[in-house]
């Protein structure tokens, strides 16, 4: 049975050089990033059209995509010669005028970066450890357990003298492990069929070696950025390996505002590390809102720095209408705010509603949050238990400080 990926491959190869990745994505009504990833996986780059111009016309507020003309390229060549820049290595060139802003993309340079990225992932996959297939016994009265190590902020630094609580890399990872241990023990009376394990959600405190978030906000940190990445990877690997001994694990990545780039790279690293395990699945596409089904349950996860809470239920229905129509119990798990909230949206009497739950964070307040008075919230990790027919049947927390 052919899949949409097969259909895209057939379409692109039957029309060599006629379409860009964006045009293919529009034709099949798929996200651009998904088509881009598919083109790399199946070596379709040579069949797709090369460098493009994206022109945002400020007077008409419309975007037009066309091939760069020889005059455009000659103009860039002259600019490079005048400024002593290597023309052959250009990647993106912006040409801004009073009426327009035009971006020129160098296909060869872009493909080189993509190939290097893919080669790195392939190398990690080649050296990934082998995980034996775990044969789990039949589970009577099965349940899904969602364990959420939310907003851990590995690399954050807080000193009790200044903020009331100490926090660093060592404390962060110890809390993650201790919290998972406690929740697994407390929930033993509910037989486990699967785990849903969200990752991301500000797992890293900064996004670069300048110790800033993705948008450039400087942070107080413990250690170097590369250390944060290594510590986070090790913690995730150890936790996932523990969960795999109990039941299959479904990993869902939610991108976040502190570590938009490095958090995604961490998710790809984890997928490469576990790609030989048959008992784990990964959903790490860079999509803000993820939807997951377990029996009659529809569970959405998102970091929470994007769409407003009041808009999430309608987005849930419109972005995944099939899952919406096939489920009775619907939940939205939100992060980012570091304190517990629970909201219920009802759309009519005698009809199931949507429960939105904001996760607590294991991390302590940093100096800025302490100064602003954003303190006193329990520092905790949470677990939700879902029955395949009856929906959420329990919620457990492991608290560390308040």
Low-confidence stretches: 51-65, 347-351
Number of strands: 15
Structural class: alpha/beta
CATH third-level topology of the largest domain: Purple Acid Phosphatase, chain A, domain 2
How helical, in percent, are the residues?
25-40%
The run of helices and strands is HHHEEHEEHEHHEHEHEEEHHEEEHEE
Number of helices: 12
Number of domains: 2
Shape: globular
Q: Strands, helices and their partners?
A:
Blueprint: H1 4-14, H2 21-28, H3 32-41, E1 53-57, E2 62-66, H4 70-83, E3 92-96, E4 100-105, H5 107-126, E5 143-148, H6 160-163, H7 169-186, E6 192-200, H8 225-244, E7 249-254, H9 260-273, E8 280-283, E9 289-294, E10 297-302, H10 312-319, H11 321-325, E11 329-334, E12 341-345, E13 354-358, H12 367-372, E14 379-387, E15 391-401
Parallel strand pairs: 5-6, 6-7, 7-8, 10-11, 11-13
Antiparallel strand pairs: 1-2, 1-4, 3-4, 5-14, 9-10, 12-13, 14-15
Helix pairs in contact: 2-3, 5-9, 7-8, 8-9
């Amino acid at each position: 049975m052919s899949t949409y990926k097969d259909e895209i491959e057939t379409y692109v190869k039957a029309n060599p050089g006629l379409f860009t990745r964006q045009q293919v994505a529009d034709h099949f009504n798929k996200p651009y990033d998904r088509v881009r990833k598919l083109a790399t996986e199946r070596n379709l780059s040579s069949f797709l059209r090369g460098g493009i111009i994206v022109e945002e016309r400020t007077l008409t507020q419309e975007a037009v995509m066309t091939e760069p003309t020889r005059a455009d390229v000659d103009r860039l060549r002259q600019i490079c010669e005048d400024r002593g820049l290597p023309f052959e290595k250009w990647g993106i060139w912006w040409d801004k005028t009073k009426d327009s802003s035009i971006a020129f993309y160098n296909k060869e340079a872009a493909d080189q970066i993509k190939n290097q990225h893919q080669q790195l992932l392939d190398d990690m996959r080649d050296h990934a450890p082998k995980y034996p297939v775990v044969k789990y016994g039949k589970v009577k009265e099965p349940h899904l357990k969602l364990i959420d190590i939310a907003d851990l902020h590995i690399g954050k630094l807080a000193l009790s003298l200044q903020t009331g609580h100490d926090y660093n890399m060592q404390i962060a990872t110890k809390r993650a492990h201790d919290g998972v241990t406690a929740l697994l023990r407390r929930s033993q009376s509910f037989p486990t069929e699967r785990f849903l394990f969200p990752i991301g959600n500000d797992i890293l405190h900064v996004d670069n070696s300048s110790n800033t978030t993705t948008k450039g906000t400087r942070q107080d940190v413990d250690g170097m950025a590369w250390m944060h990445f290594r510590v986070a990877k090790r913690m995730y690997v150890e936790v996932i390996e523990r969960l795999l001994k109990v039941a299959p694990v479904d990993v869902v990545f939610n991108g976040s505002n502190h570590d938009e780039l490095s958090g995604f790279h961490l998710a790809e690293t984890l997928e490469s590390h576990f790609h030989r395990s048959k008992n784990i699945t990964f959903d790490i596409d860079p999509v803000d809102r993820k939807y997951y089904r377990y029996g009659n349950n529809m569970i959405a996860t998102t970091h929470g720095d994007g769409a407003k809470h009041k808009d999430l239920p309608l987005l849930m229905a419109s972005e995944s209408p099939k899952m919406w129509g096939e489920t009775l119990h619907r939940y939205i798990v939100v992060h980012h705010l570091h304190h517990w909230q629970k909201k219920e949206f009802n759309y009519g009497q005698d009809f199931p509603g949507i429960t939105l739950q904001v996760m607590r964070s294991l991390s302590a307040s940093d100096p800025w949050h302490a100064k602003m008075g954003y303190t006193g919230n329990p520092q905790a990790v949470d677990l939700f238990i879902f029955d395949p027919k009856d929906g959420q049947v329990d919620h457990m927390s492991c608290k560390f400080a308040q």
